[in-house]
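Troubleshooting log. The previous structure file for this entry was overwritten by mistake, so regenerating from the original sequence record. Sequence copied from the archived sheet and checked twice against the printout by T.R.
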Amino acid sequence: MHRPDRARGGVEQVRLAGVRRRAPTAPPDRSWAPGSDTFAGLLRRAGAGLTRLIERHEGQTALIAAHGETIVAACHLILGIPPHAASRVGFGTGHAGITRFEHGSDRFGRRSWTLALLNDTAHVRLGP
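Regenerated output below.
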């Protein structure tokens, strides 16, 4: 779900240190840089795409290669965490991490999601 047309706005000119200073305090409905997307906007956009994929592949196994922000959006969507809770909960995502969600029935026959694996990097060899 590559979106090259996403609104980056002035974020291109913001140094990483500036983003890190603002990120913990920026409400999810406020952009970090003029004209850029908000975190809530990212969750809505990625959530809509993920919802379409889930519906299209109901009952199947799907592999999605994505940026960390998409994994965070999946966690919010699937676990039912609203955007305004983003300042109280976080998900660690790193390079080449594997995250796995499982959809199935519990012992009472209720359909539910399980976050079975988050950002597993055991397959990445570090060092020489």
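Residues 39-124 form one domain. Archived copy saved in two places this time.
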